[in-house]
Give the backbone structure.
Amino acid sequence: MARRQIVSWGFWDWGSAAYNVIILTFVFSVYLTDSVGKDLPGPISANSWLGWAIGAAGLLIALMAPVIGQSADRAGRRLRSTGIWTAATIVSMAFLFLVQDDYHYLWLGLLLLGLGSVFFELASVSYNAVLRQISTPATIGRVSGFGWSMGYFGGIVLLLVTYVLFIAGDGGLLGVSTDGGLNIRVVALVAAAWFAISAIPLFLAVPEAPPASAKPERLGVVASYRRLFTDLRELYRRDRHTVFFLGASALYRDGLAAVFTFGAVLAVSVYGIAAGDVLIFGVVANVISALGALSGGWLDDRIGPKPVITGSLLGMLACGIVLLFLSGPRAFWIFGLGLCLFVGPAQSSSRTYLARLAPAGQEGQLFGLYATTGRAVSFLAPTLVGLFTFLFSSDRAGIVGILVVLLAGVVALWPVRAPAH
């Protein structure tokens, strides 16, 4: 039963690749900036608008995530909360079909992308809280790494399917018309269906966690925030390093998110990779990332999450600095894949770091705080990317914004005490 629950839980990550890989990173975001917003009038580029839209979505997540996680813990409704926000994400993905290849539709695409980011992050809060239910202290690193690797492998399969059937050549193997971006809009529908089908096993195999108390309180919005601040003060008194970790991880996770959000866009605009070839790069990148997540999970269970996170961030900084001074597709293939190798372990071990720290019965709330602290500064990397791009009239300059945020995360994490191992 435990193995069945782990595999079913991992299939949600497998399906989530439809949003992370297809919508946010390799296909639809590139379509928005390279096609829909290509002829956008005015001094502000579509890349800058994309950065600011994702930043605005982060503000909404910061306000909503901890209260939603706290409510799911209190009532024993983590799976229900995951299901509601997963469904909302899928609906927003499906509506992207309406975004035609015309700059007048850019606002609609950015709005739906922003809403999808909000819904997806809220679903992830309760989903991540389930990790402790299906693992033990001795296996939590490998289980988390398995989930991340499932996401990467799901991305590989979905990228190959969409590239062959809808994108390669002129409309793919199915010959879907490219007028008005129809083939890319159909990909959004396929991605929505992929996520919906893949998420089903989680809700069939994994039981709901019991509520935090026999008679859970019903709190309004104001009372929920009041409880949140009370719990934060207690958490700080009990283990302030947990609070320090939330702050440090907020910084470097914003940098990790920016790598996914802007990686494909920069590949096309800076390093000269053809828009169609971005998907091939995405397939290889997901293989490398999956291997990184699996090996990182193995190391996590042996040496703890902090060394894995720190080493991964330093590796990403090294690759990013080299990329800043190189040009051409070959450089991006080599050092872009180097970045991908380190992203998976950093993400997976961040999840296990917090899961090891979370008091029993408060996982959802703590992962809500995890999302909130991350999103409290989530405007930082996208805004810096947009700002550097605008100030220097160069998409390459946006890389500096990502590197600054990653470096700040490493510095902030360095003095934080690692969880008991």
